[in-house]
Amino acid sequence: MTATAGAASTAGTPLDPAVFREVLGTFASGITVIAATGADGRPAGLACQSFASLSLDPPLVLLCVGRSSTSWPAVREAGDRFGVSIIAEEQRAVCEALGRRGGEKFAGVPWEPSPGGAVHIRGALATLDTVHEAGDHHLVTARVLALTARDDGSPLLYFRSDYATGAFE
Predict the structure, then answer these.
(1) pTM, entire model
(2) Tell me, what DSSP letter sits at residue 28?
(3) What is the bridge-based pairing of β-strands 126-132 and 162-165?
């Protein structure tokens, strides 16, 4: 679909939500898993594509979580520390498991606790241990405490409401 001239908002004219979603869907984004270990030792987490680096000094990342998320409260209640795993293209099943609502999301998902107590997805392109430094809103900023990265692999992307992959050299 090509956005029409009438799709752009002018003062006082709302945007068509379907057109807005389609146009913003042309921005390919990587997929992360945000996860923490609860007091019971079990992981809690969610798939998140609204993730970005925010600052080099201090090292901060930013993520946005939908208000309707039922998983974010479990991650938040686990404490201020949580892990971020940048998902590789071969980990689509992990993304689908962590992206669904309810149920045992981590059943069959290979994960491990980090030395700092965060949850990392095995095989991820990169992992970060973070600590939540913002207030109680859903726009989350976090300081990066530790990180790792693979030397190989490509990311799993989300593009035009579907999964995509890309080879980068």
Answers:
(1) 0.78
(2) -
(3) unpaired
